[in-house]
Amino acid sequence: MRILLTGANGYIGMRLLPQLLEQGHEVICAVRNKNRFTSNEELKEKVEIVEIDFLENSTAPDKIKNIDVAYYLIHSMTASTKDFDKQEAQAAENFNKMMTETSVNQVIYLSGIINEEKLSKHLKSRKAVEEILYKGDYNVTVLRAAIIVGSGSSSFEIIRDLCEKLPVMVTPKWVKTKSQPIAIRNIIQYLTGVIGCEECYNESFDVGGPDVLTYQEMMEQYAEVRDLKIWIVGVPFMSPKLSSYWLYFVTSTSYRLAQNLVDSMSVEVITRDTRLKEILNIELIPYKEAIKLAFYKIEQNEVLSSWKDSLSSGRFRKELNKYVQIPKYGCLQDKKSIKVEDPEEALERVWAIGGLNGWYYGNWLWKVRGYLDKVFGGVGLRRGRTHPTKINAGDSLDFWRVLLADKEERRLLLFAEMKVPGEAWLEFKIDEDDVLHQNATFRPKGLLGRAYWYAMYPFHFFIFEGMINKIAKGIKKD
C-alpha cells in the first residue's frame, strides 16, 4: 500500500518506518523540515519525503494525493506553549482538509487511554483530536495507548533518570496512580497490524501491556531489573507545581512537559476494550521484559529515536534553516584554530562531543552551566545525545541543537538552547589544509547580553582553548 507517515521524525514515526518498509509498503514521510529527517541513509533512499506544516497548511501536495493509508502521529505535549491543545486541534482540522484532496481510505491515529471521567488536559486534547478525525471522509482506526516503554521514550527515560540518580525518593501522591505500560514493540505491532483491517475501521481500541502497575511499582521493578536499591517515601502535601519542579530538576524533561506529565499522572490509564489483542493475535510483552529489551537497544547503540530530539523539547519551534547562516554583524566571537595531524580522528572526536563523552575540557564547568540553566528554566545538560557517535541536523545535544552535521564538509554547527540573553552558535570545521577551526559566536540582546559575554569571557578563554587542544591531540576527557 501507499502510506503517508506524518510525524515521521517523531519517536513513534522513526520506529514505525522500518517496519512499514519491511512489509513492502510504499511510504511518504511528512516532515516540517526535510533537512532534519534523521532516518539512516539506507532508509532515505527507500522513501519519499514531503515538507508539510500541519499548523499552517491545509492543501495537499501532489506527492500525497494518491495514498491508501495515513498515520496521524502529530502531538504537541512537549511544546513550551500552554495552548498545545489548540495547536493539536488546528493541526487535525488542517489534516482533515488536506485528506479531502487525496484518495486515502484509512487513517490510523495513536491516542491515549481516556476511560476516566476526569481527564488531564493532555488526554482531553487527544480525545478532541480523535473526534475531529472521525469527521473526516475516510475510515478511522484509533489506538488508545497507556505509557510506552522503550529506549528513548519519555516515560522510560524519566523513570530511568529517577531510579538511576535517586536511591532515596520523596515522591508525590501520583506515584500511587495505576497505569498499564506497553512495550514499544507491541505498539508497532498494533500500528502495522490494523492496516487495511476492515474489522478495525471506524473503531477505537485500548492497547496496553499485560501488567497493571502504579508508577511506584514501575520504578521498583525497574530498579529490580537494573539491580538497584531504591527507597520511595510518599508525601501527600506535594502540590502539582512542586511535583513539576521535582521532575524538571531531577530528570531531563522540560518544565512544560513536566507540568503536562504531572497533570496526566493523576489519571489512571487502564484498558477496558481489549478486542484488538484478539483480533490481531498480539502476544503482549511484560513490563520487566520491555525494560530489558530497551537496555539491550541502549547497550548495542541501536536507539532509533528519542523524545529529546523533538524540536519542541527545546527552544526551537519551526525552522532550523534561518539559524544556519551565522550572522556577521553585531556579534561577539571567540575564534581558535589548530593544525591537526590526523584530521579523520579529530573529526570523529568532534562527532562524539557531548553526552556521556563530555566536552573534553572543564567538564565540571559545563555541568555547573547546565545546572544554572535548569535553575533559570532552561533545558540543562541532561538531554544528552541519542547516539554516542552518530549525529544529524535537528538532534538535541545537551543544551545545544544541531543545525548542521556534514562529514563530507567536515563541519558541525550547534545553536544554544540554554537560557542566554541573546543567540549563541558553536562551530567546528576542519578545512582543506587540515586546520581545525572552533568558532563561538554570540549575538547579544541589549546591554545585558554584552555584560553576559564579558562576564563569561575568562571561563570561555580556558574552556575553549582546552577543548580545541584536546580535540586536536586526541585526549578525550579532562
UniProtKB/TrEMBL annotation:
It holds the Pfam family NAD_binding_10. It comes from the Bacteria. InterPro entries: DUF2867, NAD(P)-bd_dom, NAD(P)-bd_dom_sf, NAD(P)-dependent_oxidoreduct. This is SDR family oxidoreductase. SUPFAM superfamilies: NAD(P)-binding Rossmann-fold domains. Residues 7-148 form the NAD(P)-binding domain. Coiled coil: none annotated.
